[in-house]
Amino acid sequence: MRIELQTSGGIAYFPGLARPVTVDSGNLPAEQAADLERQVEAARFFDLPAVVGGPSRGAADYRQYTLTVEASGKRHTVHLTDPVSDPALQALLQAVQDQARAQRAADSGQDAGEGGDPASP
Q: Cβ of 108: how many Cβ atoms within 10 Å?
């Protein structure tokens, strides 16, 4: 299963930091992959409309998310706006954000470590 998350808007929005992130369950430990799959099922993601929620009248600086899930030959995209009121969908969004953060941290750690530590023998 592959999940792509794209974030836009919000008070501290920086386009360069908002690049889409793809989480591939095939690259995760089995327990984390199974958890993501359970969350997709619990949110009934493939049954959701293309747009869930929307900004309140007069709202500004709200964050928007685009979640695309590919699994078992199916692909579905849902656009969300903070706050996400469905608890199962909020839990899925949070789990994907956590995986994306961990992935970015690992990627930046690899980038920093590529040159080696000049202080080590």
A: 10
- The span from the CA of 40 to the CA of 99, in Å, is 14
For 9-51, the pLDDT digits (tens) are 766 655 655 678 899 999 999 999 999 999 999 999 999 999 9
List of residues 6+ apart from 103 with CB closer than 8 A: 21, 23
Residue 116 identity? G
Kindly report, residue by residue over 74-116, the tens digit of the pLDDT: 999 999 998 899 999 999 999 999 998 888 788 777 655 544 4
Could you count the other beta carbons within 10 Å of the beta carbon of residue 5?
Answer: 19
Residues 61, 8: Cα–Cα separation, whole Å: 10
- The residue type at 74: K
Strand order in the sheet with 63-71: 21-24, 2-9, 63-71, 74-81, 51-52
pTM of this structure:
0.80
